[in-house]
Amino acid sequence: MDIRPPTSSVLRCILNEAHGEHMTLASMLEALGDRSFGVVMLLLGLLALVPSLSIVTGVLLMWPAFQMIMARRAPSLPRWISQRPLLTARLTRLVDRVVPVLVWMERMVRPRWRTPFESTKRVVGAVIVLLALTMLGPVPFSHVLPALVIVLIAFAYLEEDGALLTIALGAALLSLAITVATVWGTILGIEAID
User: Fold this and answer.
1) Residue 46 within a domain
2) pLDDT digit string (tens) for 5-53?
3) What's the whole-model pTM score?
4) Nearest to residue 175, comparing CAs of 125, 132, 120, 138?
5) Domain total for the chain?
6) Residue 186 in domain
């Protein structure tokens, strides 16, 4: 049985092996391999927690989520984003800030209850699309729960933790149910006024 290295180690390894002062997002995603979708979702999920960015991030999350549903190997980004040179030193500083948090989380999250990767990818993509749609509403702070659930799903997906992924998908159902109840209550309230 293959031992899956933690994401924190993979990120450090990619930056340690980077040649030159610049690297592109496309080369970094290529090096991440099957983890690339998880990293993109994790970063966008964290950005979605910022109130002023939640709607834009909700739209951006749908792009890789649809690609997951189509079982693409890695997210394909527009060329002007994917080929833009990024300073390796700046990426290293960013990863140095993120890695301690990942290491702390990796103590609790580990590969268990493995699932078929391709079918899991499609299910996760579909759930992310639905959660991203719920972040587009104008209700203040309604983006927080879906964003937190997306972060949880992304981390479970990254580390192939089927147990955590099951919990995260349950939390996604709860988040979607709350959104449906809120919308339904609003519709009933508007009809009662008329």
Assistant:
1) yes
2) 778 788 788 777 777 787 877 787 777 777 888 888 888 888 888 878 8
3) 0.81
4) 132
5) 1
6) yes
